[in-house]
Each structure stands twice: as C-alpha cells, then as structure tokens.
Amino acid sequence: xxxxxxxxxxxxxxxxxxxxxxxxxxxxxxxxxxxxQLHLYILDDKDKLLFFEEDLSNFDETHLYDIIMWDxxxxxxxxxxxxxxxxxxxxxxxxFSSLFFFNRQRNINKNSVADISISVSQGVEIFGAxxxxxxxxxxxxxxxxxxxxxxxxxxxxFL
Length: 159
Description:
Elements: E1 4-11, H1 17-34, E2 39-43, E3 49-51, H2 64-67, E4 96-103, E5 116-122, E6 130-137, H3 144-155
Antiparallel strand pairs: 1-6, 2-3, 2-4, 4-5, 5-6
Helix pairs in contact: 1-3
C-alpha cells in the first residue's frame, strides 16, 4: 500500500515566531482531535524526540527552538536591531519551517516511521513565496480514507 500525501500551497502570511507557533498549534489541534489515539512529537534541536501533552498545553513559546527549524546562518529581524538571533518576536525573509509527527506508539525512536508527518512552511516577512503544508500518511488500514477526506476539507481553512 502506498502512502497518502496532501500538499497545500497558499499565500504566505507575515508572522513573527510567536504567531507562527500559534498558527502551527491551530493547524495541529484539529488533527489531534480527529486522531485522538495518535501522539504528537517533534525532533528537537538536539535530535531527540519531544512529545507534546495530549491537550497540546506544552505546545508554546518555551519550545521555540524545537518547534521552529531555525538556522544559525540566518540573521532574523527583531525589535532589537542588534540581535540577529531567533526570538519569539523575530520575523524573517524566509518562511519559518517545522516538521511534526503523529504516531500511535510513544515507545519509538527517532528512526521510527510516523503514522502522519506534517511539514509546515509559513510566515515569510515579504510576500511572494508560497506557504506550504505537506501531510504524509503512512500505509494504514482503510480507516484513513474518510479521515483523509475530512482533513483535506479542513485544510481549506488555511488557504
């Protein structure tokens, strides 16, 4: 069985890092509700698994460097013009990006195949580059079909 992939491209929004984190949470919360048996996690900046609480209560600014795949080579724009580092108030010429995973099991390692992986790219400071959400579903029984359709309809709200 092949994987199912949904790719959504739409106009980018100008967001700072804090707004981007809130945007990602608003995208992931309905997916978590649609698949309550799945656990949401990311690979943090030290390449370790970081699981979020089931209610996503810890999906917030305290995980700034874990949620956003930041690049030390990028000079971020901040209210303090002398600070080029990623902060909660940063904006950037390039979109913020993240990679999230959902899995039925918590007892996994960084090489485990996720049931759902979601790549988000959004928040570019200057409009022009498209924002992208890429959702990959691993091979799974036919139960995915209805939920994939619902998720596809759901993704229309982000256009």
